[in-house]
């Protein structure tokens, strides 16, 4: 149930007139009609295609000359349903009335629209980007979860329903579903893509990220979305990869570790140096600080909504909010400070070991069976906590044919280097 739909190909076909925007939308519509009833990646919308085709007609009228067309001219995108989008309601995977969740359109969405993209629709999210899952299924095997909380976005890109979709990450909500669905997921340095216009979870660690089918598409999108993007000369030398050996890696399953070792062998065979670096021996404490920070900040962000509509929240989300209300201010402050301390630890260790990028499993193992859970984000937590730019790259498959992959993290602010290096890494892994 997966189709090839790379972002770069779409840009070329649309911008240079090989395909009209309306014809491209019609291609996706046929695929949507075939696959969407089985994977349920998009929030249902009456009149979706009439709206999108009207936007396409308007765009084509504005830019008849290919030389004048913006970089993402006519590209249909999915938008996780915690982003506000002009003309579309925000449900956030919840039972709260949409009129209380309204807000100004997300700055990241506006940047994509300014670059010529069309909003195909809202994609399914877990409730308020936490753990209560929606109906979305994994396109590789509908008996398995696509991951979360950006469930619909990852599944839609994997199925070829759109070449780009927004996600967010507060623990592992971009990198993990990218791994489960076999696509590229990118989480920038904390704050590099504006978070305004997105319903908050934990303001200290919320990241806007996205999904594409390949690294070339990820780099094209990042250049449109990231603040102060720099076009660097391509790096010919391969990066030295650091493996965070110890308690952190022990959190992966046996199958996840076996897959990771296979990926490391592929990279060594392709000429990459791989170095073991003992670090994160205190991963349990880091996990606890991050989880308490999330709970406390979720309770703060939802205080007014929860007071008015607490009965409409799922039991899972209510439990975390109630926990967050009990966390003392000192613990909240400690969690916020911990982010900066961990970032410094990572970068000091990289300098000492001569490492350019960290590499680790994207998830503990392949996508679990069923859709009642979205899987464990524990492998993603330290990279999110520290705010380091991170990319998920598809690799081999499990014994059951499900995707397995790796995640690579660069020093804070080195997003351009990470994405440039990702091309060679992705080539070696596949």
From TrEMBL:
It comes from the Archaea. Pfam families: Amidase (PF01425). Transmembrane segments: none annotated. Residues 24-419 form the Amidase domain. Gene3D superfamilies: Amidase signature (AS) domain. InterPro entries: Amidase (IPR000120), Amidase_dom (IPR023631), AS_sf (IPR036928). GO terms for molecular function: catalytic activity. PANTHER family: AMIDASE DOMAIN-CONTAINING PROTEIN, TRANSAMIDASE. This is Amidase. It comes from Haloferax marinisediminis.
């Amino acid at each position: 149930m997966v189709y090839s739909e790379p972002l770069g190909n779409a840009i070329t076909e649309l911008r240079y007139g090989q395909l009209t925007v309306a014809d491209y939308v019609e291609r996706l519509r046929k695929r949507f009609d075939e696959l969407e009833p089985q994977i349920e990646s998009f929030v249902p919308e009456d009149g979706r295609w009439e709206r999108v085709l009207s936007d396409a007609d308007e765009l084509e009228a504005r830019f008849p000359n290919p030389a004048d067309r913006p970089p993402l001219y006519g590209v249909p995108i999915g938008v996780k349903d915690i982003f506000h989008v002009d003309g579309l309601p925000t449900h956030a995977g919840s039972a709260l009335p949409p009129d209380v969740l309204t807000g100004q359109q997300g700055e990241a969405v506006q940047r994509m629209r300014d670059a010529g993209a069309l909003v195909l629709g809202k994609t399914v999210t877990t409730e308020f980007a936490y753990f209560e899952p929606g109906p979305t299924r994994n396109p590789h095997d509908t008996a398995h979860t696509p991951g979360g909380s950006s469930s619909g976005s990852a599944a839609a890109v994997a199925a070829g329903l759109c070449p780009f979709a927004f996600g967010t990450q507060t623990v592992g909500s971009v990198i993990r579903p990218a791994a489960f669905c076999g696509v590229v997921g990118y989480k920038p340095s904390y704050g590099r893509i504006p978070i305004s216009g997105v319903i908050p979870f934990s303001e200290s660690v919320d990241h806007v990220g996205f999904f594409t089918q390949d690294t070339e598409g990820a780099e094209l999108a990042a250049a449109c979305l990231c603040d102060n993007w720099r076009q660097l000369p391509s790096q010919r030398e391969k990066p030295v990869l650091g493996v965070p050996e110890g308690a952190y890696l022990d959190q992966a399953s046996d199958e996840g570790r076996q897959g990771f070792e296979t990926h490391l062998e592929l990279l060594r065979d392709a000429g990459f140096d791989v170095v073991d670096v003992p670090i994160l021996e205190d991963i349990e404490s880091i996990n606890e600080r991050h989880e308490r920070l999330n709970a406390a900040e979720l309770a703060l962000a939802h205080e007014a909504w929860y007071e008015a509509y607490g009965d409409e929240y799922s039991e899972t989300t209510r439990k975390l909010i109630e926990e967050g209300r009990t966390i003392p201010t000192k613990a909240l402050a400690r969690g916020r400070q911990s982010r900066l301390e961990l970032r410094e630890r990572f970068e000091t260790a990289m300098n000492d070991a001569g490492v350019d990028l960290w590499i680790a499993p994207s998830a503990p193992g392949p996508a679990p069976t069923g859709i009642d859970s979205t899987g464990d984000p524990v492998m993603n937590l330290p990279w999110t906590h520290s705010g380091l730019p991170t990319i998920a790259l598809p690799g081999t498959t499990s014994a059951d044919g499900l995707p397995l992959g790796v995640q690579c993290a660069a020093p804070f602010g080195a997003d351009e280097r990470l994405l440039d290096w990702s091309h060679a890494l992705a080539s070696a892994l596949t």
